[in-house]
Amino acid sequence: MSADAIFLSLSYINWVVVSALAVGSHAAxxxxxxxxxxxxxxxxxxVFAAGGWAFLAWLADGxxxxxxxxxxxxxxxxxxxxxxxxxxVCVASLAxxxxxxxxxxxxxxFIGVVTVGTGIAAxxxxxxxxxxxxxxxxxxxxxxLLLAAVTGGAFAAMVLAHWYLVTPKLPEAPLLLVSRxxxxxxxxxxxxxxxxxxxxxxxxxSGWDFFAILxxxxxxxxxxxxxxxxxxxxxxxxxxSATGLLYIDLGAVATGTILAAGLFFGAGILV
Length: 271
What we know:
Elements: H1 3-35, H2 40-62, H3 78-103, H4 109-130, H5 134-166, H6 173-198, H7 209-235, H8 239-267
């Protein structure tokens, strides 16, 4: 991989990580709003943080370099670039409105739906713009959506677990829900990892086997075990243990996201 390719992949890795944190964290709060009873403070803080991630994604998008010759992605074109950036800044703006609604005592679920939908649209526009074919666009869209769900979900779960340390009497139901959902997301990623290999888009046999194995072990299997541990400890209200496990979980998930983004944007491999 050339120096130009490394620089390209680093810029796009950064975009994927902050975009995934923004979209996935908002989606986790929306899920909790509909299915459980998280505190207003938690919802407001997490939406605020996710809005910050969206703003960073918008800044990162403006600094993305054009794909080099031989890159696994193509230039999206001025119109799609502009649309993607507009959607990202809209996510950040909508997050501010959502946070204000929460601060005033409303759950802001309608704004939440629009915020999450706008974030998903940004990921889909990115997939369509950067993919060199329809098939790769569909595959990249699936990959980005799952990366967002798991990366943002891990962040939201970690923040929620920390909330129990300052408010010990909170019911365990919200943390159980977000941990269970995170576990489902990681399981889907593991299934997709092997599906990419079966259709010839995966990392085994590509010359990048070592990094594909790292993605599988550190970025998928390890988070699956940590998420299960966090869920089990939350069930018995051992919240300090759950918090510690979910902190490590976020680090492992982020490492896996970095590896997945780097392998795709650097070598065109899906893992």
